[in-house]
Amino acid sequence: MDFQLDEEIELLKRNVRDFVQAEVEAVAKQIEEEDKIPEHIVEMSKELGLFGLSIPEEYGGLGIGMVGKCALYEEIGATHNGFTTLIGAHTGIGTVGIVEMGNEEQKKKYLPAMARGEKIGAFALTEPSAGSNATNLKTTAIKKGEKYILNGTKHYITNATVADVFTVMAVTDASKGSKGITSFIVEKDFPGFRVGAVEKKMGLKGSHSAEIILEDCEVPAENILGEEGQGYVNALKILANGRAGLAARNLGSCQKLLDLSVQYAKERIQFDVPIIEHQAVAHMLAEMAMEIEALRSFTYRVAWMVDQGMKVVKEAAMLKLYGSEVYNRVADKAVQIHGGIGYISDYPIERFYRDARITRIYEGTSEIQKNIIARQLQKEYGQ
Predict the structure, then answer these.
(1) Which CATH architecture has domain 121-229?
(2) What is the pLDDT of residue 247?
(3) Cβ(183)–Cβ(337) under 8 Å?
(4) What percent of the chain has pLDDT over 70?
(5) Nearest to 245 by CA among 107, 50, 103, 80
(6) The pLDDT of residue 82
(7) Which segments of the chain belong to CATH 2.40.110.10?
(8) Does the pLDDT of residue 276 top 90, yes or no?
């Protein structure tokens, strides 16, 4: 396994780091207070090509492999997680379905504008009755002529308020269970589509999640993504594909927290010495550094496996689980090292602590990842 980045990726990585640390970090507090990502940050992200991270070069994207994507995601993760989520949800679960399962006409129609950031992508699977039990969908799709009529409600849909193109899962044949679910490409301007209530969240300010409501929503038959009845399989593939990228974003946040914690521990004086000289603090920093390095190795190994076309169902679930849990442990230690300041909203530590919590829930809870891992082990070792 060779994780050496080529010169082009290294240059991109430096450019993204400079942008994130100079521009996004400068408005991080503003994002938190206004719950909005400034338009100039979005425009600069488009110019850097960040919205085209997962899109092949022939459709206007960066056309880089998973190792390269993770290198950039790591830099994107080292700042306000609301910004990170806007980019990550678009380039991950928001576009991967069309890239991996779309036909040529669909790719030509949607991907160039999505690569430029002119159209934002979102993924609509979750419903009030279908969270971890993703096959319990109530949204239906009934074919009428050359269209499908969709009815139902999705919720907790990231990017819903800004997205133009949604990958929507709906039931086309209830009698077939998971094999009766189909995925559709749904545009926000289709008749019968509207965005519902916007969720008020604990964290991820600037990134908005909302309901989407489908009331006799008319979707052309040509907008089926993949084959009818393959929607659940598509959803699993889309989620699995995004897990290395999600872990890389968590990794970037962890590294930022370690950087801030070491800096603070060297500057903060208690009992006449910097607190880094107190063993209790030094050991917390050592544990953070160890887990971050393990996460880095694991992230790039799984990314390399994806680039090699290897099956990564088990490894991707392990990585999603480990990355989420490490981020939460690192954030907790960062608050502890900073003490009272770590709890004050004028400083970024408490923001990362709040933002970390969702990573154990979204795109498959930690418990669901353990289920996936256990099922794969059963297959490997025989029933």
Answers:
(1) Beta Barrel (2.40)
(2) 96
(3) no
(4) 100
(5) 50
(6) 96
(7) 121-229
(8) yes
CA distance 369 to 319: 9
Class of domain 7-115: mainly alpha
Residues of the chain with CATH 1.20.140.10: 233-381
Does residue 334 carry a pLDDT above 80?
yes
- For residue 363, indicate whether it is catalytic: yes
Global confidence as pTM: 0.93
Rounded CA-CA distance 326/303 in Å is 18
Amino acid identity, residue 179? Answer: K
Angle at which helix 66-76 crosses helix 81-91, to 10 degrees, equals: 160
Active-site residue (options: 25, 363, 367, 380):
363
The yes-or-no verdict on residue 129 having pLDDT over 90 is no
Report the candidate in 302, 305, 310, 311 with the shortest Cα–Cα distance to residue 246.
Answer: 302
Q: Does domain 233-381 have CATH number 1.20.272.10?
A: no
